[in-house]
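Hi all, long-time lurker, first post. I run a small reading group and we've been trying to get comfortable going from sequence to structure in the token notation. Rather than ask abstract questions, I figured I'd post a concrete chain and ask someone more experienced to write out its structure so we can walk through it together at our next meeting. Sequence below, copied exactly:
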Amino acid sequence: MRASVIVLTWNGMADLAECLTALRSQEGADLEMIAVDNASSDGSADFVSSIYPEIRLIRSERNVGFAAGNNLGLRVASGEILILLNQDTVVRPNWAHALLAAFDECPASGAVGAKAFYPDGRIQHAGGYVNERGEGAHYGYGQPDEGQFEQTRDVDYVTGAAMAVSRKAMEAVGGLDEGFAVAYFEDVDWCYRIREAGFRVFYAPQAVLVHKNRSAAAVPGPESLYMGQRNRLRFVLKHWPTAQLVEHFCPAERTWLQGLGPGSEVLYAALQRAYLHHLLHLSELVRWREEALGSAADDTYVLAAMLLTLRSTVPIRPAGPSTEAVAELLDDLRRHEGIRAQPARSPLPVLGPLLTAFRGLWNRGITAALVLPMFQQQVEFNVRVANLLQQLVTAKAQDEQGWSRMLSECLVGDSREVADLAADLRALCPAPPKDASVD
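-- Answer (accepted) --
Happy to help. Here is the structure in token form:
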């Protein structure tokens, strides 16, 4: 059985060299090797063509992302089995043979995934599953390998860092969905489409590799957060029935949103932008749902209402008195936090000094033993209250700064989505010629 291995490259020449060297040394498998260079700027493409002449090289003029880049390789691949492999991986001996054997053992296999380790030996991936909010997670993530994931089994999905798909499955469902640009969830979506077409998705523990997880497809930051949340929603809106979205996904998403606290402002802004994106581009997903799920056309209104509900869920906001009012209360408490014993006095002209001296001796001998501890206890209480108010003032100021930051991020995100929509409209409705007239 011939297999085509597609390695998507984008800079990172040292990782690429280690990946291709390990791939070249695979035995027991008939492999066609294809490298798709996603417009690298470090000479990776020239490096492949000069050092690995047996590898078919495809050069993209621009970085088209994970899905579109791999699709370039899938279109020219000739193998019965099509394998995607990240450039920051190092496959172990027998990796390819184990993947292919899984297809022989189960003819219904549509996609098969490998067991991936971090360089320090911890498990990174032993198959994947999806929770009620559409988040993907890996079995065994971060765990030491103690033989607990040595059984072949069906899983929700396998990671696109190293996954094999049968040609029959790809011909049934097509390639990767390029709507998941630039990266994230295209592998989950592909596995779900393959399963919906009647195939099985397997995890094969005998196929082992190391994944350094150094992909430069998306730089961490607000834009990366937005891409991840937008693509998660795209996956959910593509595959989940309307009842599941309304009765399970939306309540779970709202509960999660309401639990977001200070420090989550940029994430919340990314979510707001993602909800808006799908509101503005809902027609495409509704068409997909009609064809793939048999959903009704009026699902548009249900999905739009759900997205609007999520956009109206606001988890982070300043509450209670203003920072200035709390600060004034703190200042007043600081002025009165200490309690001082008052000296004994008497207004009598002759007996006064004697009475004062007697009261002083009495206080020092008896009263001080009872009253001063209470004074000290009250002073300590006042200091603690003052310190607590100081923490509240600091937290209040940070909360208001976070709120302002979140609003700013939301406005920027909304502006980007509206600008993208305007560009789409201009493409659909080009400007009339300058000499055109309107009656």
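A couple of things your group might point at:
The chain has three domains: 2-211, 222-311, 323-428.
The domain at 2-211 is CATH 3.90.550.10 (Spore Coat Polysaccharide Biosynthesis Protein SpsA; Chain A).
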